[in-house]
Amino acid sequence: MTTRRRMPRQADIARLAGVSQAAVSVVLGGNRTVRMAESTRRRILEVAEELGYVPHPVATRLARSRSNLLGLYTFRAAFPTDEADAYHPILSGVEEEAAALGQDLILFTGTGGPQAAQEAAIRRTRMADGCLFFGRHVPEDPVSRLVDAGFPLVYIGRRPELGGRIPFVGADYVSASAQVLQRLLGLGHREIRYVREPDVAPSSEDRQLGVLRAAPRTGIVRLEGAQLPVATVRGWLAEGVTAVVVEGTDTGTAYRSVRAALDAAGLSTPDDLSLAVLGGPPGVSGFEVPMREMGRRAVRLLVDLVTAAKSTPQQLLRCPSVAGSQVGPPRSG
Amino acid sequence: MTTRRRMPRQADIARLAGVSQAAVSVVLGGNRTVRMAESTRRRILEVAEELGYVPHPVATRLARSRSNLLGLYTFRAAFPTDEADAYHPILSGVEEEAAALGQDLILFTGTGGPQAAQEAAIRRTRMADGCLFFGRHVPEDPVSRLVDAGFPLVYIGRRPELGGRIPFVGADYVSASAQVLQRLLGLGHREIRYVREPDVAPSSEDRQLGVLRAAPRTGIVRLEGAQLPVATVRGWLAEGVTAVVVEGTDTGTAYRSVRAALDAAGLSTPDDLSLAVLGGPPGVSGFEVPMREMGRRAVRLLVDLVTAAKSTPQQLLRCPSVAGSQVGPPRSG
DNA sequence: TCAATGAGCTAATACGTATTAGTCCGGTGT
DNA sequence: ACACCGGACTAATACGTATTAGCTCATTGA
């Protein structure tokens, strides 16, 4: 094996070209404010080429306080074992936009592990110029530390925590949900139920808010566990319910459990009941979450923050509505 | 917005604790070779805690020449738009093992782009302690530069290029393929065909080698385009062929085209013909490529290289064989 | 002839941490 | 009284690059 040679540095070039290290830095760094004779510039470039010089990214980063490295903190595996990964499109968008903006990505590992490992990973975050966060929770303590220190970070998903100081790119679930309900009302539905997941997260609250804003009389059904009892579905029919709206999440549990219960009750959509999902799989009636676009926008926002340190912006993206085939006029309508 | 405060550094702690920066480094770095009074140590730790000190990873890296950062160079998007990603298990294994070994990952973007962008990304590779490469091609020039400089890198997949100087973790396609053919011979098959993809890559050659080693009389069929003519399949029957072996790749094109042709010819497996895939989707007769394990092993090897700079090791992993249901005794056997 | 100018370059320093070779000091042994 | 030792710490330097202030020298203008 070839002996492990040291990579050449600017000082090596300087020696061979008979100039100072600073001169090398100026020329190779493309610094136009310092004037250099064309001959010197060429000599330096030649020697650099000859030695196969490549700037040491870490040193550059230390000197410049900029590395074109964005962190990615996922609170779980970025490449989960489970093939079907609902968040994949977000990451795909992140990667795409990062490439377009000339940024590389640091994937912090251990973000899905025990508390201590998570916090350690959050600290390492500072290795990058800024960091994308990505998950339902906000570990307030370490994150507020970062925010306080002015470290650029962007959450994917709306984050009201820390007094609204967290920059984020989220989806406008309120409007999108309201729109779905308006459509149902427009079709003549009056007795409607909204089935939501049991846990509390901004995204859940936003949907419910939108639902009630458009149709205040909607009955809220909170799922307990992964199963929806068939009795509940039968009850709906008895109460004259004609449409059901379901919270869509990454796992899609709510949607699946409702579908299962409907099937078990022998009901078909949209004939017996209209069914809409708030942020569901593509093609299903309701609306889609613009995941890919969220990823892209988050990267753009983060780069903005890194370069300009603007005041904390918080963006909500429109969710395109999906007609689908599971929504129709009410039965007795 | 909070004004952007500077993060505290060791010098700040030193001032407040009335010691030198070196003392702070010693205590916080857990350096046990330099003795420190217990009282001093505690004072430093207290001040550090109070200021919320977090070591600056870039500076640490520069000083230590070690950052616990591994590069990941994919020659394509790491999060491809296409949901069905055959390489996903490899990346999953990489992430898992990296987490276990306390390594973060740098995803170099633009690796799927134009030549120039690719080479630039290869250069940036040096930002990490070492780098995983991952793809069918080897851009010899930039890669040999890295190898020559002693930069630790590991390819995923066997790489005979550069005079065998590239460390890699591959799969032992030769043995696995031979084993599949032996099984067929054992069942009584004598007239066998091997359908391979048109391009040349070590992984293709290895399979063919294994096939011919076990059953030298096997006929080689090289796919042209994505379709296998039904006539070819009919021809096999006429020639007394009883088993077909297909090269399995990430895209699975060969397998699908053979299946399509068999279906079109109205043939069923294994009644009319036995069908084995060399590295196919899970459950199909033939063998599986231990993708996840390859990812894990590659990380381990890379970390070994980073820490010890051993001589270039090249590992081949066993491919577990899969019985499946598409292989049986020959029809007239 | 001398100050002013500007081109072309370098010395010095910063970035934040790790490490090595000491220094200083009080105690011990003779 | 002096060498010696070990404990506790620090000064200095390295890591590799970027930046800024300032130096030198030749040319220009009066």
TrEMBL record, chains A, B:
Keywords attached to this entry: DNA-binding, Repressor, Transcription, Transcription regulation
Sequence ranges assigned to domain HTH lacI-type in this UniProt record: 8-64
GO molecular function, one term: DNA binding
Superkingdom per UniProt: Bacteria
SMART domains linked: HTH_LACI
PANTHER family: HTH-TYPE TRANSCRIPTIONAL REPRESSOR PURR-RELATED, LACI-RELATED TRANSCRIPTIONAL REPRESSOR
Protein name: LacI family DNA-binding transcriptional regulator
